[in-house]
Every structure is written in structure tokens, then in C-alpha cells.
Amino acid sequence: MIAREWKCRVPEVHIEGFTGYLYETGIKDSSATPGYLGAQIFQRSLPGKVEITLITYWDKMASIKAFAGDDISQARLYPEDEIYELEPDLSVQHYEVIEHQFSPALRG
Questions:
Q1: At 25, is the secondary structure helix, strand, or coil?
Q2: What is the DSSP annotation of 76-88?
Q3: Domain topology for 2-106
């Protein structure tokens, strides 16, 4: 399994709207791609901003390429990002997931 990590910063005033927008763009497009296994969204407060980390999980690099294009190290951005005054990382990181375990209480 491969984890794809992307980060951005959003002014606090836009965080609620941006989270929904993230679901309608990045999560929706990712989940429609064969080989997508799931996602997690993290947030943390910064002075006047919120940092968002999106991690998507994939079965193999070829599936990521189908989603992201030939250069999988480049972030996939959307035209409406500017509405949220987004400060996106322009590159992403990929990790081989060597262990994943959740408590049964967290599984659903």
C-alpha cells in the first residue's frame, strides 16, 4: 500500500467551507480512481491559519499515476482553490505503508 501526503494552509475563516470543498474535489476525484483505498484528513492550528494534511491510500504507484498524471510528485490543484486563499504545497510525498493497525473501536 502507498500513502500519498499533501499539505496546505487555509485562513481560519475559510476552514469549514474548505473541508467540504476538499471532499468535492480531491477526495471525490481520488475515490473515483481505480486503486484508491481510502483517505484521512488531519488539521492543526497555526497563527491565523489551519494546516490541512490529506493522506490518500493507494494499492500501487500506477494507480496514483492514473489519478495524478505522469509526474506523481506534483500536487493536483483545482481552479477554485483561490477562493479559499489556499497556500498549497506544490509537491506531494509518497510512502510505502509497512504497518497499519487500528483499534477495533476505531474501525466503525
A1: helix
A2: ---GGGGGGT-EE
A3: Alpha-Beta Plaits (3.30.70)
